[in-house]
C-alpha cells in the first residue's frame, strides 16, 4: 500500500516522465481524491491539469 496520495502522485509521475514538456499532454483528474494526485503529476510533467466533474448514477 501507499503512504498517502502524495506518494502515489510522485510514483505515477515518475512512470510518466517520458511525457514531460510535451505540448500534447493533458492531465485529467476526477474530484474526490484524484485532483491532488493529478496536480502532482501535472506539475512534475509540466502539463496542464483539467478537472472532469461527474455524477454517480444510482442503481434503481
From TrEMBL:
SUPFAM superfamilies: PRTase-like
Domain spans labelled Phosphoribosyltransferase: 11-56
GO molecular function, one term: transferase activity
Keyword annotations of the record: Transferase
Name of the featured protein: Phosphoribosyl transferase domain-containing protein
KW Transferase (keyword) present: yes
Keyword Transferase applies: yes
Pfam family, one: Pribosyltran
Amino acid at each position: 500500500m501507499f503512504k498517502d496520495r502524495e506518494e502515489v502522485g510522485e510514483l505515477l509521475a515518475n512512470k510518466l516522465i517520458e511525457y514531460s514538456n510535451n505540448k500534447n499532454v493533458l492531465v485529467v483528474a476526477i474530484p474526490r481524491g484524484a485532483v491532488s494526485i493529478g496536480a502532482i503529476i501535472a506539475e512534475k510533467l509540466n502539463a496542464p491539469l483539467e478537472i472532469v466533474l461527474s455524477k454517480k448514477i444510482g442503481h434503481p
